[in-house]
């Protein structure tokens, strides 16, 4: 379980690091512009890390299920090779999920800058195509 918790902490650290730097710079600047590539990069990493976290939580639930329902067989079922395989599969599923979303989003028509008014504040976000 500590192996999964360490991976979950790593994923949570990266999830909060995806959009926070851009958000902080936008708070300090008057001009709030993000490039198309920057926007797609944020979308990819947000989906990649969030999907990896969701699958990792499912893996952790499976680990607890095995520990509770088959306590005598736990060490033979959840060996280091299986734990590593489940973590790698969570990262792989997250990558496939993010790539599928990115493949659909990139095909959408983006023509020139668009003002997107935020629901919670009056600061518009402009996506500038370069």
Automatic annotation (TrEMBL):
Pfam families the UniProt entry points to: 7tm_1 (PF00001)
Protein name: Olfactory receptor 4K14
Membrane topology note: Multi-pass membrane protein
Subcellular location, record wording: Membrane
GO cellular component terms given for this protein: plasma membrane
Domain of life: Eukaryota
Lineage: Eukaryota, Metazoa, Chordata, Craniata, Vertebrata
Record keywords, A-Z: G-protein coupled receptor, Membrane, Receptor, Transducer, Transmembrane, Transmembrane helix
G-protein coupled receptors family 1 profile domain: residues covered: 1-130
Membrane-traversing stretches: 33-56
Keyword Transmembrane helix: yes
Keyword Signal on entry: no
UniProt GO MF annotations: G protein-coupled receptor activity; olfactory receptor activity
